[in-house]
Each structure stands twice: as structure tokens, then as C-alpha cells.
């Protein structure tokens, strides 16, 4: 009940805040009307897997766009409640049942995207960001940026250009999913907003050019002109502010000067990520009981091989290796990052740590990694590595592993969208 009251208050705040915006963004005019021994994790549904891409932390590779597929459209359905009056979406094209789509409370754009983001230096942001606060890190062509979760929580989408690449930086608090998507699609740049709807408790976005609805947790278009197609995902991860400062002292940080009045730094979802809590407004496949529904996982899906790594296992071991979709990978865990969905203040959340995923291929060789005391070392050369995939000592000093797309999720969310996922929970080598 306490959580429900907080979420009701959030709905009131975001809707009232829309009227209080000091400089609301101008939307783009419309053109038309979310291998070791492994465990199998769950029931079969019609949910579709997402296709991930690979990239490096400092000089990202060209992401691999999901392959085209002929969508299996469902028979025509009546638009979700109220949507017909709010949207010009082509509701005759859909790949999901509208019975799965629920109102999250706020209306279309009731949680306003940031369309004209402003950035400040690390030194300026250090005046109001706490060392353990979570920020979303993305680095494209050497352009490293931090998007504080204390801001993303209140806006959920930032339409930006990073390293010359138009991106949508997105965050769904109810699923703890911070995901970056390329906005260039079919030869034009899309701008994204919030529909005010949820599916499996996950944010449904829409693009302002066609008003197609997109599932944030997977990047799939689920309703409208582009239904059945996929956005290209870029590597982005949640880390502690202090780690961003150390890794990217000349990076840029999203400013709290957004043009909207919001209580940045306050958490409207107090206690939400307690493992004993139930997901808010979740109506979906039964969550496999291998983990609590709101247990944190770090998940990858390479070549239609979805795998979830339990945060508890990452925290206990510090490093986990695997082969995912034929790609040898390593997940590196760093302590310190705070949960943004725990305490009344974002910075006061309990420590949950941070995870980043990398390919283990380096200069034609596949490396094996282990934890030795507080150090991460590779078995082939004995070099020491930091949590960002950089060799900091030994024969490979100065080398950088290539980052692969991985995403933070709550277990219920990942399992709902990837019912055939495997789980690494620390019980298998």
C-alpha cells in the first residue's frame, strides 16, 4: 500500500509538472496520423527476443542491426482504452494483444521526454551528484556522457545526439532497464515520447513521426506502421558516479536544467526494488521462481541466445564468463553503485554494484578471467583488469576489451520478454 501511494503521487506530480514546465520542448511535427552448465528458466509465450549488437567502450564498433523479418500481425483489434483519441497510430497493425497493454496513470507525454538536453562538466555535476549515485554511461566515438538516474527517473527518455549518432537514451524505473537505441530508422531520425502505457510493467514509447508504439525493454515496434521491426541498440550501462568520474574526467553530464520542475534526487518509487515487492501493474507470464521477481539481473541476448546473470552471483564472484550466441563473453562487476529505487533519496539507496559485459576475444585470442583477491586477472597472461575492461597492469597493459550490449533488468521483466532465457545464478560453474 505504501508503494502504491508513492506511485499515485508520482502520477500526480508528473501530470502537474507538465503544466509547470518553464520551457517545454518542441516536438518534431508528425508526418502521419523494453559453455558452462546453465539452467532453463521459464514458460513459453509469444514474446519476441531482442537482438544485441557489439561495441567497444572507447571506440564503439558499428552495431549490428536486427535482421529484417516478416511480422506476424494479429487480427484487427480495437485500440487500447483512450488511445484512439490520443494517437494517430495505425492500430490495425500489431504483434501483441492489446489486452496486455495497461495505462500507467499519466497520459501521452505525461512523463515528458527531454528533447533539448543540456550538458555540463564533471566538475560542475560533482556539486550535486553523490559518489555512489547511479548514472547511465554511454560512449560513442569517444563522446562519453553520463545521464544521472535521478533525472531519467522523471523523464524516461532523452532524445540526444552522441558522438554524431542520434540516440534515444531510455530508462524504465519499473523494470530498471536503461537502454540506448539508435534513432535513425528507415533513413530518417525519429523522436520518441512516452505513451503513458505499460506492457509487462515496461514502458511503451512512441515515435512522433509515425506514432508507432515501441517496447522499451526489447526495442521492438509492437503497434503501428513499424510493427514487428526492431531498433538498433547501443551499449549503455548503469555505474556509480565516482566510477564515471575516474574513467571519463572530461566526459559530459546531463544537467538538471531540463526546462521542467521536478524534485531531482528524490525517489518516487521508495522501496520498489525490495525482492519481496510485487511488480507494479504487472500482467504477464508467470515469473519463473528461480529468483525473486524483483531480483536484479544483468542480461545479454546475442544471436537469439538470451542469458541472465544474477546480480547476487556477480557480487559474490566479481567476474563470470560464458559463451553467448557463440561469442565468448565476460561480465565484470564493480561494487559501490547505489539502487535508485530503494531509499527516499536516490543517493541513499543500498549498494547493489554495477556490471558491464565484454567480448573475451582480444588480438585473435580468447581470454579466460578470474578473481584473485580484489583483482581481476586473465589466466593467459596474468594481466590485471579494471571493471571497464581495461588492462591496468601486466603484459596487456593498455589493452581494451570490446563491450557487448548488456542490460540491467529485474528478473520478472527479462523472463517475461525472453521466456527461453538461461540463468547464471552462481550454482553452476
Total beta-strand segments: 30
Q: For the largest sheet, list the strands in their spatial order.
A: 1-30-19-18-29
Summarize model confidence as the mean pLDDT.
86
> Structural class of the helices, strands and pairings?
alpha+beta
Assign a percent range to the helix content: 10-25%
Low-confidence spans: pLDDT under 50, at least 5 residues? 12-62
* Outline: globular
Whole-angstrom Rg: 20 Å
Distance between the termini: 40 Å
Strand content: 25-35%
Number of domains: 2
| Separate helix tally | 7
**Strand count, sense and closure of the main sheet?**
5 strands, mixed
Which secondary structure elements does this structure contain, and how are they paired or packed?
Layout: H1 2-20, E1 39-40, H2 83-86, E2 101-103, E3 119-121, H3 122-125, E4 134-140, E5 143-148, H4 149-155, E6 157-162, E7 165-172, E8 177-182, E9 184-185, E10 188-189, E11 192-199, E12 202-207, E13 213-215, E14 220-223, E15 233-234, E16 237-240, H5 241-247, E17 252-254, E18 296-302, E19 305-310, H6 311-317, E20 319-324, E21 327-334, E22 354-359, E23 361-362, E24 365-366, E25 369-372, E26 375-378, E27 384-385, E28 391-393, E29 407-410, H7 411-417, E30 422-424
Parallel strand pairs: 5-17, 19-30
Antiparallel strand pairs: 1-30, 2-11, 3-17, 4-5, 4-16, 6-7, 7-8, 8-15, 9-10, 11-12, 12-13, 13-14, 18-19, 18-29, 20-21, 21-22, 23-24, 25-26, 26-27, 27-28
